[in-house]
Specification:
The protein is mainly alpha-helical. The chain has 2 domains: 60 residues, Homeodomain-like (Arc Repressor Mutant, subunit A, Orthogonal Bundle), CATH 1.10.10; 127 residues, Tetracycline Repressor, domain 2 (Orthogonal Bundle). 75% of the residues lie in helices and 0% in strands. Pfam families: TetR_C_31, TetR_N.
Length: 192
């Protein structure tokens, strides 16, 4: 296999674009090569088969979801109260929605995982580890609420971003993405 990390990342970014725009059925080596603007056959030199391409695209979506260092530093500065939690959740949903292709590709990968047990196992492990890390970080940072708070925010805000990107008209009259994230935080029980 070829070992050019920049080219590999560009191919995975192209795969994310294909997944978001054409779905998992449209994800072929040729489609990735075309989208990346590289010669036909390039993707097949980097990934042994379609299953590996899907698995690595799912890893790349998580890399692209990660917040910048400044966002992490902001979490650890100032008071640990409901207002701070709302600020963090607004930043999170804004980051997730900022590049719709990444979020939509992640949804496509989850749908594809219902048909591919190996992809399901990989995604389940990655998402569970991410949720556990978020719970641990929330608790270690001394944010209000606990495990249940993180779980409720995870469920509500993931669906908020999904709805915002896939059916924006449903919530348009209810407020913008950041306003809705704030409303979620303001209505959860931080004492339980």
């Amino acid at each position: 296999m070829v070992r050019n990390p920049e080219r590999r990342a560009a191919l995975l970014d192209a795969a994310i674009g294909v997944l978001a725009e054409e779905g998992a059925r449209g994800l072929t080596f040729r489609a990735v090569d075309t989208r990346a603007g590289v010669p036909v056959g390039t993707a097949s030199n980097y990934f042994t088969n379609r299953e590996e391409l899907l698995a690595q695209a799912s890893v790349r979506t998580y890399e692209r979801f990660m917040p910048a260092r400044a966002e992490w530093d902001n979490v650890l500065s100032g008071p640990r109260d409901r207002a701070k939690l709302a600020e963090i959740m607004r930043a999170t949903v804004t980051r997730l929605a900022a590049d719709p292709n990444v979020y939509l590709a992640a949804l496509e990968l989850q749908l594809e995982a219902t048909r591919r047990p190996e992809l399901r196992a990989d995604l389940t492990a990655r998402v569970r580890a991410d949720l556990d890390a978020n719970i641990a970080f929330h608790e270690e940072a001394g944010m209000p609420g606990g495990r249940d708070t993180v779980l409720v925010l995870y469920l509500a805000l993931n669906w908020l971003v999904t709805e915002y990107l896939t059916l924006p008209g449903v919530l348009a009259s209810e407020g913008g993405l950041e306003e809705l994230a704030t409303r979620v935080v303001n209505r959860i029980d931080l004492e339980g």
